[in-house]
Structure formats: C-alpha cells, structure tokens
Task: structure prediction
Amino acid sequence: MGEILALAADNLLSPLILFFVLGLAAAFARSDLTFPEAAAKAMSIYLLFAIGFKGGASVVAHGIDGGLILSLLAGALLSALIPFIAYALLRVMTNLSTIDAAAVAGHYGSISIVTFVACSTALTGRGLDPEGYMVAVAAIMEAPAILSALWLVSRRAGGSGMDGDLLREILLNGSIVLLIGSFLIGGITGDEGLEKIASFIVAPFQGVLCLFLLDMGLVAGRGLRESGKYLNRGVFIFGMIMPLVGAILGLVIGLLLGLSVGGVALFMTLCASASYIAVPAAMRVALPEANPSIYLTLSLGITFPFNLTIGIPTYIAVASIFAGG
Amino acid sequence: MGEILALAADNLLSPLILFFVLGLAAAFARSDLTFPEAAAKAMSIYLLFAIGFKGGASVVAHGIDGGLILSLLAGALLSALIPFIAYALLRVMTNLSTIDAAAVAGHYGSISIVTFVACSTALTGRGLDPEGYMVAVAAIMEAPAILSALWLVSRRAGGSGMDGDLLREILLNGSIVLLIGSFLIGGITGDEGLEKIASFIVAPFQGVLCLFLLDMGLVAGRGLRESGKYLNRGVFIFGMIMPLVGAILGLVIGLLLGLSVGGVALFMTLCASASYIAVPAAMRVALPEANPSIYLTLSLGITFPFNLTIGIPTYIAVASIFAGG
Amino acid sequence: MGEILALAADNLLSPLILFFVLGLAAAFARSDLTFPEAAAKAMSIYLLFAIGFKGGASVVAHGIDGGLILSLLAGALLSALIPFIAYALLRVMTNLSTIDAAAVAGHYGSISIVTFVACSTALTGRGLDPEGYMVAVAAIMEAPAILSALWLVSRRAGGSGMDGDLLREILLNGSIVLLIGSFLIGGITGDEGLEKIASFIVAPFQGVLCLFLLDMGLVAGRGLRESGKYLNRGVFIFGMIMPLVGAILGLVIGLLLGLSVGGVALFMTLCASASYIAVPAAMRVALPEANPSIYLTLSLGITFPFNLTIGIPTYIAVASIFAGG
Amino acid sequence: MQTHKAKRVVITIEAIMQKRLTDILEGAGVTGYSILPVLGGSGRSGAWSREGQVSRASGMVQVICIIKPERLDGLLEAVFKVVDKHIGVVTIADVEVLRAERF
Amino acid sequence: MQTHKAKRVVITIEAIMQKRLTDILEGAGVTGYSILPVLGGSGRSGAWSREGQVSRASGMVQVICIIKPERLDGLLEAVFKVVDKHIGVVTIADVEVLRAERF
Amino acid sequence: MQTHKAKRVVITIEAIMQKRLTDILEGAGVTGYSILPVLGGSGRSGAWSREGQVSRASGMVQVICIIKPERLDGLLEAVFKVVDKHIGVVTIADVEVLRAERF
Ligand SMILES: Nc1ncnc2c1ncn2[C@@H]1O[C@H](COP(=O)(O)O)[C@@H](O)[C@H]1O
Ligand SMILES: Nc1ncnc2c1ncn2[C@@H]1O[C@H](COP(=O)(O)O)[C@@H](O)[C@H]1O
Ligand SMILES: Nc1ncnc2c1ncn2[C@@H]1O[C@H](COP(=O)(O)O)[C@@H](O)[C@H]1O
Ligand code: NA
Ligand code: NA
Ligand code: NA
Result:
C-alpha cells in the first residue's frame, strides 16, 4: 500500500498528469484555451505512428515471442467479453435504458490508446519495458467490443445495427490502420529504421504527450461541465468500479500468459480503459438512439482521468507484486 | 554606440530576423505563401508551453528570489500606467479620436510575447540568462493595460465597456492560462521534469521560432500593405517613439528592482512591446467603435518589427551598460 | 544490374517507402485515415524550409562553385524543353486532346519537390552528398515548363492563357518563395545559423518525411481509385516512360556540367519527376478545359510512385556508374 | 441574365453520416452537392463545438444540393431515410440558378 | 413529403462576439442554431482573411437559426442589441423544413 | 423590425479563382462579400474532398454577396465572365436584411 501511494504521488507530480490537470482546470474556469482541431489530430497521428513503430522495432529487437499469438487471442476475447460484464453491472447499478447500457458497455470492452501510451511511458521511466507486441494487442482490442455491444442491443431492442460498411469502418478506422501499419513497418525495418527516425519519434515523444494530455484535459473538462448532469450517482460510480474490474481480469489473464511485469501492467490498463474515439463513432452510426452525452462523458470525463491518475500507478504496483521477482 | 551597432548587425543577420524579413518581403511581393491558421496557433501554443515551462524550471533551479514578488508588482503597475503616457503622447502627436487613442494606448501597456521570446533567445545566445520569473512578469503585464484603456474611454466617451464576462475572458485568455500553467508545472517538476521534455522544448525551439517569425512577417506585411493607409505620419512616428519611452521606464524600474542584465533587458522589452492578441480581442468587444486597422497595424506592422530589429539589440546593449559589471 | 536491384531492394524496405505504401494500401482499402489539410500543409512548409536552409548552408560551407550558374541555366532550359518532348510522345502514344496533352506535358517539365527530397535523403544515406545548390536548381525548374505548355496550347487552341496576375502567381508561389528564401538565409547565416536550428531541421527530418509520404500515399491512392479510369493504357505507359526519358536527358546534361555523383542523380530525378502542385494550379487558371483528373492522376498516381520506388535507386546506380570513380 | 428556378436543400447532419447520405443522394439521382463544415451548434441534444471533440463521432456538416424542382420529392424521401433516426435539420428554399443545364 | 414554413436567419458576426450572440439567442427562446466558419470577406471596414490573422479578435462566423415564423420578431430584436454596435450582416429568408416539431 | 429586400448570390468556385472573382465583384460595385470554405462535393467533374488534395489547384469556396436587388444584373454579368469557362455553381435567392444602408 505504501508503495502504491509513493508511486501514485510520483505519478501525480509528473508533467504528463499536471498538464492534464491544467487542461481540466482551464476548462472548469471557462478559459478560452483550445487546440485547433487539426493540431489535436496531428498529435494523435504522431503518437500512433511513434508508439506503433517503436513497438514493432522492439518486437524484432527481442525476437518474436511465443506469447504474441496467445496475447492477441486473449486480447480479442477479453474485448468481446468485458461488455457483457459491464452491461450486467450497469443493469444492477444504474437505471440506464437497455440501449444506453449496451452502448456504454461497448466502450469498456474497447481501449483508450492514450491511457495505453501514458502507462507505457510510466513503465519505461521505471525500467519496466513491456513486450513490444502489446501495441498489437491494443489494436486488436479496439473492435470486438463493438460487436458485443451491438449484439446485446439486437437481442433486445433492434437498433439499426451492423452492416458491411460499418464493419469496414470499424476494422479499418484510421487509428487501427496507422497503429498496425507503423507496427509492421517498425518490425520490417527494425533497429536500422528506428535509428533513422529516432530523433523524431523517441526524443520529443514525452513533450508531445504533455501537450496532448493538456488538450485531453480541456476536452474532458468541457465534457464534464456541460454533460456531467447526465451522469447520476450510480453511473458515476460505475465509471470508477468498472476499470478495476477490467484490471483484475487483465491481471489474471496477463499472469496466465506469462507476461513481464510491464506487460501485465499494460494488459491491466488496456482492460481497464474505455474507448472514446472508435466506439463512439460506431455507436452514432449503429445506435443513434443511445445518448452520446452519457457514454462520452463517462469514458472521457470519469474513467480516463481515473486511470490516468489513480489507475495506472495502482496497476503497475499490483503487477510488480504478482508478476515481479 | 559601436557596440550597439555591432549587436544590431549581428541580430539583423540571425536566422530569426531574416525569416521575419522574408515574410515581410513575400507579403509585399504578394506571394501566396501562407501558414494554415491551425499551424500558426499550434506554433504559438508550443512557444508559450516551452517558454513557460523553462521559466518555471529555471526559477526552482536558481532558488526563489526575493525579487519575484516585487517584479510582478512592478510589472502590473507599469502595464496599468503606460497607457496613460501613451494616451497623452497620442493626443499630442496625432489626431486620433479619443476612442482610437485609448484603444491604441491599451496595446502599449500590454506586451507581445513573441518579442519577449525573441529577446530571451538573443540573451541566452549571449550568455545573459534572465531571471526565470520574467515569464510570470510577462503574463501579469498582459491585462492591467486593458482596464486603463477602458477607464480612459469611460471617463470621456462611454463605450460599451467592461462586464463580468469580458473580465473573465481577459484574465483567463488562453495565452495567459497556458503560460502561467506551464510556468507552475515547470516549477513543480523542476529539473527532473525539464529533462523529460527537454528534447521537445529546448532543442527545436529556435527552429520553430524561425517559422513563427516567418508567419509573423507575412501577417505584418499584409497588414501594412492593406491598412498602412490608416496610419498617418504622426501615428507612424508614435509607433517607434513609444517603445523607446516604454524601454526607458523599464530600464529605470528594472535597475531599481536590482535585476540582472538579462532581466533588465527583458523588462525593457516588455515595456517597449505592444500587444496584438489579447488587447485587440478585448477592444473588439468593449470598444467596437475603435478602428482595428489602426491599432493592429501600429502594433504589429510598426512596433513589432521595430523592436525585433532595432529595439532588442539596443535594449540589450543599454542594459549591459547600466546593469552590467 | 545486380547493384541496381540491391539498391532497389534496400530502397523498397526503407521506412520512407514503406509508409508511402501503407498510405496507398489504406486508400485502396478505403480506410478513413486522413491527415488534416493544415497538418499536410505544415509538413510541406517544414520540408521546404529545411531543405532550402540546408542547401544554402551547404553552398557556403563548400564555397560557391562555378557550376552554380551553369546548373541553374541548364535547369531552366531543360524545364522549358522537356514539355515539347513530352507533348510529342503524348501525341504519338495516346489519344489525348491537344489541350490535355499540353497540360500533361507541362507537368513533366516541372518538378516534384518531394521526389527531390526523397532522392537527397537516399543520397545522404549513402554518403553521396549532392551539391547544395541543387535546391536552387529545383526551384528554378518549377516555372519554365508552364510557359512552354501554355505556348503549345496558344499555338493551336487558344485557351484563356497567361496574364500578368498568373505570371506573378507562378513565379511567387509559396513553395518557390519559401524554398529560395530559406536557401538564401541558409547561405547568409551559414554554419552558425545551421547550428542554431539543426535540431529542428536535421534531426527530425526523416521522421517528418515518413509521415509526409504516408499522406502522399493516401492522396495518390485515393486519386488512383477515383480517377484511374481516366487513364487508358497509353497514358499509363507514358507515365513510366517519360520519367526515364527525362532522366536520360538529366544524365547527359549533368555529366556535361561536371556534377558529382549525387548531383547527377539529383538532376536526373528533377528531370524525371512531374509537378503536382504548382503546375496543376496554373493549369486550372489558364487551361480550365484541360481535365485535372488526367494530369493529376498521372503525375501523382503513376509517375510519383514510379520514381519513388524504382526510379530513384536506378538513377543513383546509373549516376554512380557514369559519374563515379 | 437568364436564370432558372431550382430548389436549394440543406441537410445538417453528423459528419459520420456524410458518406451514407451522399450515397443515398446519388442513388436518388442528385447530380451534385457541396459539403460545408459546421463549427458548432446547439439543438435538442445540447450544444457542441468542433474544438471540444476528440471523437470521430462528433462534428456535423452541411450537405447542400441544388436541384431541379421536380426532383425535390424524390430527394426528400431518400434523405428522410437517413435523417429520420439521426439528429439533424433539413431545410428547402427556392433559388434561381445560372446554367440550368447543369442540374 | 410534408414540409412546414420557417425562417432562416443568418448572422455574420465577429468570432469574438459569438458566445454573446448565442447566449442572447437562447434567451430569446431559440431552440437551435449552427455555426459556420467564414474564411474571409470584405465590407465597409475593409477586407480580411482568416489566414492573415494573428489575433483572437479577428475572424468572423455565421450563426444560422432556423425558427418558426412567429418567433422571428423576438429574435431580431434580441439580435439587434448585439449587432447594432458591431460590424456584421443579418439576413432572413423563407424556407421549408422537415420535422417541424423540432423548431 | 424594419427589414429590406435584397438578393443573396452564392457562387461556388475553385479556390484558385477566388481572387479573380472578388476583384470582378468589386469592379461591379459590390460593397461586401463573405467567403465560406467548402469541404468537398460532387458534380459533373466528379467528386472531390479537401483532405484528399495535395494541390493548391484544388478545393472550392463559396463566395456570398448580399446586394440590393437593382444591382443583381450587373453582378451576374460580371460573375458570368469568370465562371463561364470554369466549374462552379451560381444561385440567387430573395432575402430580407436589417440595416439596408450597408448594401
Ligand atoms: N433550429 C436550428 N437552426 C439551425 N441549426 C440547428 C437547429 N436545430 C438544430 N440545429 C443543428 O443541428 C444539430 C443537432 O440538432 P438536434 O438534433 O436538435 O440536437 C445542432 O447541434 C445544430 O448544429
Ligand atoms: N454585402 C455583403 N455580403 C456578404 N457579406 C458581407 C457583406 N457586407 C459585409 N459582409 C461580411 O461582413 C464583414 C463585415 O462587414 P462590414 O461591417 O461592412 O465591414 C465583411 O468582412 C464580410 O465578411
Ligand atoms: N447541384 C449542385 N448542388 C450543390 N453543389 C454543386 C452542385 N453541382 C456542383 N456543385 C459543386 O460544384 C463543384 C463543381 O461542380 P461541377 O462543375 O459540376 O463539377 C462540385 O464539386 C460541388 O462542390
Ligand atoms: Na477496456
Ligand atoms: Na508594453
Ligand atoms: Na521534370
């Protein structure tokens, strides 16, 4: 417990978290500080490009590990499974409608890539480098949860549901293509490729991440200010319980897979995090009746800050205890 | 005098100034070279983030100096005072209406952060590092001048004036929040934080500044080309006399405060520079009758280039004489 | 031949090419991956700024070479001449109308700066640094081809043709101004200036180029998908024959000029590449009847990928044979 | 100058639905349309702004079609299928156009 | 399809006044509006363009409200308070809308 | 409130022609216009989108003029010279304006 607190304090005073908090504070104070939409998109392209490439290069540097395939499989299964757990919890803890509950559940099966990046950065800072292929696991966990959510609805309420176009949009959405593509190119060009572009993707990485988290804080804060009213007590609590439930699942499976400490912590983080890009987009198309204020505010306004501040250091500490030494 | 000329020549042949001149020239030649609005905003976010953070980290590195509070106070007072001097000069030197004169006066009390950054860069290049807290002084000098300008008008002409919303907008405008926020975070995380993001905020800084000044040259040149006609001789001369008046005030107060050579030069630069972001925004809301072509062209087209090319090396040379060894 | 293949394989597995291919693939798979327009423009500003500055600094570092003036002259002449060759080939090989053929021909006399940058990067990677002034040659080759194309049309079909405004737009278009301006500033500030901004324009250069080529792949792929139908067999083949014709011309003239291996390879690349920015813009104004789907798709969808993948390593190998040792 | 009667239909819809809508427009025989960006707005589902979005799901666009009056009904029926369940606003106005052969 | 008469009010105003205008619109009972970006323009106070601006003060937007005809007068009076002293243009046009219950 | 009749002319044209068009508008005595960005569209010359462009040649804008009805014919004739050979769409609609002295 003492260690967790020390880790948490250390984490809370890192520039990354402080810039996120600055963003939250500026939003609540109604400052007009904003990032241009194009700059925010450019930063997220940069982060996906860098994290994918470094993951791929690291996989070849360390040799391809037997765990790769199993981890991908486990990731896909968890992504598909977690929405059912989330849905059951939501039906018990909240009064959300079937459709809203299913939509929210889908977000929690999927993942938040920035949470993943923040955790990776914290791990690298502590010398706990995770398996490079966790990037691919992150990518594969984006989509299955959406199918589970739509299945939950179609069983009960209909919904305009899935069609071929939507399936293609989900599987080939820009983030997945960029992440997987950079991962593969990192793998193909290996250390030699990494060397060529290291001063672009390694050196300035943390600085860009600070600015990105500042923007996330602004967006999350504005979301909470405007849509916080849609979250009643039960929903609010769900947003902090569910990541822990996910993290425990991730811990168990991560240990069974025999991942390193860093790998287990990342796997916990993936299971604990909730999507706010790919899944909302799919939900707007397939479940337009579900209220985006609920699922976006929950995922971005509650669970994201929770993971960033309390979750990540906890997951790292727990992973160190169970997978370490 | 010889030294000033040498410094000025050196300054004029630095990439920073040459890119600014390239921008001016391209604008006058009516080239279609333009920066996308989002890229210009992203660069200014980067500059504020970097300069704020480095300032904060430098304050802790050198220990908190008794001069901090006094300098902040002096900055706020000068910002509030300078508009009255500017207004008096304008009434004597030009035929601007009360409202236009008050609006212009407000700009000269406030500051231009890019002029500040250009001066800091020149100082660091000469080993004359200023006090880190000058960043906070810059931030505090943004707003008081606006209140003085509005008071000048309300005393005479009415104007729709100040309301609660406007006050919040002025005090919490994006630049101030980002600058002060980064300064605080730089202070909290200190050298350890700086090390993490140095290769983002230190190494590429001058390069970004070159591009930013190129864009400023384009904007200033286009402004002069289109609105130069609104500036008659008196106004034009005011745009080059007023920075010197401000600089002298800054020199005296800076010496009284016991600042280092770099600190005095920066204080002179702050007093000499004129706002072209925060103050125009406030004037459009509070004094819509004032002509933006006058105050923007004066501040951006005359005083900014004047300070960049002639002012800064002069202020550094003068500060070296009076505050040096 | 063996060497060419080895070079080509090496080239094909570099991150630059792989990211371009990723973009092509994503476009064909109809992924929604896109770069914001502002980010794409910002990257191209960065590339022009960096390549121009480095070229200028390199010219002074190596002393001004008698070849400079001759190379500029030769470049301008080739740019004006190549459209006639291209036009003749098009009339023989394809059934394009006079106007479409002239418009296409203009593109091949002019140059693609990204192809130039990709070749420079490959050369530097092999220790074959070209003459710094090749940047100026690239800039001077942009415009003459446009005049030739318009002359070809006016002789036959009329067209709204050239006027003073258009001439100014062509000669002072943003890319040329930025490239030449940065080149001059690089020359004026020399190594001292380069040192100040090297960590902005040297270190991250290849990383930015990867992202830029990813975007080019997306754009070229979407162009091919949507407008590939406008290119029949003859036009398609022209898009791969013409660069070779240009390259041979470039080889001969480059050897006559006595350029280094790198210089000859770059000169071949310039002659082989086709414009997709400056020339299309001029054609839309002066020859609105010409079909942009033909010239853009040909230049960006066929010739650009051809040069990037097969052309550049070939030109380098050939230049090494003829100009080397 | 000679002008011709036409209808200007403006559909404000979520960006994510844009492709689906324009596919349907093309299916309904619409020969042209333009897409304008929308920076923000407010309606029954609350206020939003483009700069406060991380999500691809968010943001709206305006799809503008100029059509011959006789095509209006077909177009509206086609459009209605898409906008019925989704948020969005449809307006129709009378306009005159030059070069009527284009529509 | 069944359409209903409505008014389309377009207010071109400085971006810096946007929030003040939409607050007033909400006060006047307007149930929805959309904001479009404006890239540049020209008027009595000269020409401007978005890319030539460093200043937050600059740039304009279009605020578009579709309203029931009976609400028009209230809206115009409210709007006039804001635009009176500021530069900007207000136009009103007749349109038809689908789904009238929304306005 | 007191409103006045005016015409709203919208010209959708390639960005590269914008300056030429507005020069001609000014020549034809137009006292003001606004430029809106267009994200994409489709017409007889195919579909395009702003994000799929590397070229300065591409992209379109909407030029909007509010003018007194009596100026319409002069304006259209001037505009026609520019749009005749180029792709683009011109629409004219009736609107009411506040503050008619501005037009
Ligand atoms: N009356 C209106 N006038 C103009 N735009 C509207 C109006 N109502 C809604 N909108 C736009 O349509 C979006 C969704 O509206 P709603 O479905 O009512 O939430 C809003 O955010 C606005 O951008
Ligand atoms: N007649 C007009 N038609 C369209 N937009 C106009 C018109 N007059 C003014 N505007 C817009 O309103 C802005 C301010 O106009 P003004 O107040 O006349 O300077 C201009 O820059 C244009 O964007
Ligand atoms: N019927 C239409 N309605 C709205 N916009 C149109 C229409 N036709 C053409 N456009 C716009 O004008 C551009 C050029 O049209 P076109 O000349 O038909 O290729 C298109 O890409 C659209 O942006
Ligand atoms: Na998850
Ligand atoms: Na000042
Ligand atoms: Na060429």
Notes: The first helix of chain E runs from residue 18 to 27. The mean pLDDT of chain E is 90. The helical segments of chain E are 18-27, 72-83. The domain at 4-97 of chain E is CATH 3.30.70.120 (Alpha-Beta Plaits).
